[in-house]
Amino acid sequence: MYRRLLRRLLSQGGGSVFSHELSQMAGNTAAQVRRDLMAVGALGSPAKGYDAEELMERIGGFLDGVGGQKVALVGIGNLGRAIMAYFTGLRQLLEVTAAFDNNEAKTDRVINGVRTYHTRDIEEVVRREKIAVGILTVPVDAAQSAADALVRAGVGGILNFAPVVLKTPETVFVEDMDMMVALEKVAYFARNGG
Amino acid sequence: MYRRLLRRLLSQGGGSVFSHELSQMAGNTAAQVRRDLMAVGALGSPAKGYDAEELMERIGGFLDGVGGQKVALVGIGNLGRAIMAYFTGLRQLLEVTAAFDNNEAKTDRVINGVRTYHTRDIEEVVRREKIAVGILTVPVDAAQSAADALVRAGVGGILNFAPVVLKTPETVFVEDMDMMVALEKVAYFARNGG
DNA sequence: TGTTGTGAATCTCTTCACAGCT
DNA sequence: AGCTGTGAAGAGATTCACAACA
To answer: Are A90 and A56 in contact (CB under 8 A)?
Structure first.
């Protein structure tokens, strides 16, 4: 998130920032910003704050590995397409290189610059292309088996949009993006003052 | 989330659960489950655990208000449509009743059973229909002004999918669903063992 | 025996507050 | 004078552990 803020800052000609300015942009406290930046090994000067370019590099060194990582997307529905469009061309270090669906009408094509395959080929393609991360945008019933295929193919992490708790070995990192839960949370706090 | 698990459990004929069973399904610890259920005022018996029906009611009493709440969606792109399809008919207490876009080709129609309007009418429609919650699925540049309109119309909360930090009065609850950040997080832990 | 409900302990995250620097 | 870096305090969340109970 800081990276995004810094990118915008740089494009507007800002060369350095104080923690309280960043916290403004981030919706944070200044202390939180300083802690976070400590974690990536960034350092600023009391006089000028943090240098934006150097900060970006520090965050990059922390978040991005040595090279880039390939991403596979499973489930080419509205959501899948939205996500492909969203990520395509945005970060070259995190590239969606294969998409899967079990509807033949959607396979063996190129959508949004991404090659599409049939779900049955997940394991082979993901392994061959050394894809490290999977995004799951399939209906609930298909989620676990798709996750299993990704895990068998050796991915290290899954971003899961399906409203199920996936069963995976604990060596695989799973992040849930549960829109139903999120909406209920908002509805709750909209009523009960948040 | 518990609600979803219980719904499935009931449909499979399970009448009661122990905390350790629920924790299995939820990917939790048993202690966590008991704490959470305490919070909604549920109580179980050492002999039979928690009664699934009664548990659902307790959670409902806690999460849902007296009546239902209306939801507006701003931004009818792939993501917006995916979300409409996703939420439509799922929960009758949380209903998407209006969608907005600034592309005239998408307005004054009914998509997925949802009436669509032009963005310029957000304030009027939301106020008239007493909509309490907004979902933002617009591009970055349009996000803040759409949020402002929602806030002026009096919504109590916003579910924000745009990768920006929204500026809103603190009486309005904002939940960010940042897919880029989520993907970076997964990519990070996929590499650095999570 | 096996489970709940819950104080107490532990762990994690956030905020405070201030010495040290420019 | 005003900021950073960071120990120490504080706030929250999770886990432990056990009395009470069926």
So the answer is: no
